[in-house]
Specification:
The chain is mainly α. The protein has helices at 3-25, 33-58, 75-95, 119-143, 153-159, and strands at residues 105-108, 114-117.
Length: 161
């Protein structure tokens, strides 16, 4: 996989996260309150995992003790956080060498267990992890009377790339 491909996939992630949050914002806050709250919890979980792996890739401490935060941010807060975090990934991938993507990095999982992965594998995890949870969010949006976004790569490539 080339760096350009990874950057395109992160641009897709940024678009898909924004479209998902836009759909959540359109839900009535007073109907299906629990499901709407769960959509925000899942999107925040995506953000937290993105930040954890960002720290792992750079060899820094992330400070998280769980895979989500006790508080649930608003849609507006998540929009900025996810956008900025994914922008960091886009810039980081664009600035490193192909050889950097293949170097093993040791880190600790949130549960304290030892981990060791290549940056490319971590980047793939971030991309696929977000896709998995956005699918669940789309289902919750639909169950709450909303219209889930077209979270598919072909739409992104056709209309937004």
């Amino acid at each position: 996989m080339t760096k350009d491909t990874v950057v395109t996939l992160f641009r897709y992630k940024q678009w898909a996260d924004a479209e998902t949050l836009r759909a959540i914002k359109l839900l009535d806050e007073h109907s299906h309150t629990e499901k709407r709250h769960l959509t925000l919890r899942l999107m925040n979980h995506i953000y937290v995992v993105d930040m954890i792996f960002r720290a792992n890739i750079t060899g820094q401490e992330h400070g998280y003790t769980a895979l989500n935060t006790p508080e649930t941010p608003s849609c507006e807060e998540l929009e900025g956080r996810l956008r900025d975090c994914t922008e960091w990934y886009i810039e980081h991938v664009g600035s490193i060498s192909d050889a950097d993507l293949d170097q093993m990095i040791k880190f600790r999982f949130v549960d304290g267990g030892a981990g060791e992965m290549k940056p490319l594998d971590m980047l793939n995890h971030v991309l696929f992890h977000g896709t998995y949870h956005r699918g669940a969010v789309g289902w919750l949006i639909s169950e709450s009377g909303g219209t889930p976004p077209k979270d598919v790569m072909t739409v992104f490539l056709r209309d937004y790339n």
